[in-house]
Design goal:
alpha+beta, six-stranded antiparallel beta sheet, rod-shaped, 2 helices, 141 residues, 6 strands, SH3 type barrels, 2 domains
């Protein structure tokens, strides 16, 4: 089969679009990964799963009175009868906060990997689409 003028133009147009998309995707990957890395996001953590939290994890506590405390998780203290307290290191000091005074526990996570994976997935999809367009164009020759 011979390639018609319309199919040649369509292939060239798609090739131009895919090339631009691939370039934009690489730029987006770089920008997305660097901006995500500079702004860690907060991941809410349930009090019932505190046993799964590793020591040294960066956390932020929101207390009943609206105060926010940031620090590294050090463990759970259950020495008092019926009083469980969260222990963590904040500003060169060990802080103990009763669990009933905490409204939210957030774990800080860096998003670099997430931004990188999204950009890489877009690049992969662009590459596969470009390859299919290229193969389709050569099949008519």
């Amino acid at each position: 089969m011979r390639m018609t003028m319309c199919s040649k133009l369509t292939s060239l147009f798609l090739l131009a679009v895919m090339t631009q998309w691939l370039g934009c995707s690489f730029i987006g990957l770089g920008i997305g990964a660097s901006s995500d890395a500079s702004k860690p996001y907060q991941d809410p953590f349930q009090k019932s799963h505190l046993a799964e939290l590793k020591q040294g994890t960066e956390t932020e506590l929101l207390l009943i009175d609206g105060e926010k405390i940031e620090g590294n998780y050090a463990g759970l203290d259950t020495t008092g009868i019926g009083k469980r307290t969260l222990v963590f290191h904040a500003a060169n000091d060990t802080t103990r906060v009763p669990l009933n005074e905490i409204t939210q526990i957030s774990v800080k996570r860096k998003a670099r990997l997430r931004g990188f994976l999204i950009g890489a997935l877009l690049d992969f999809m662009a590459f596969i689409t470009f390859q299919k367009v290229w193969e389709t164009g050569h099949a008519y020759n």
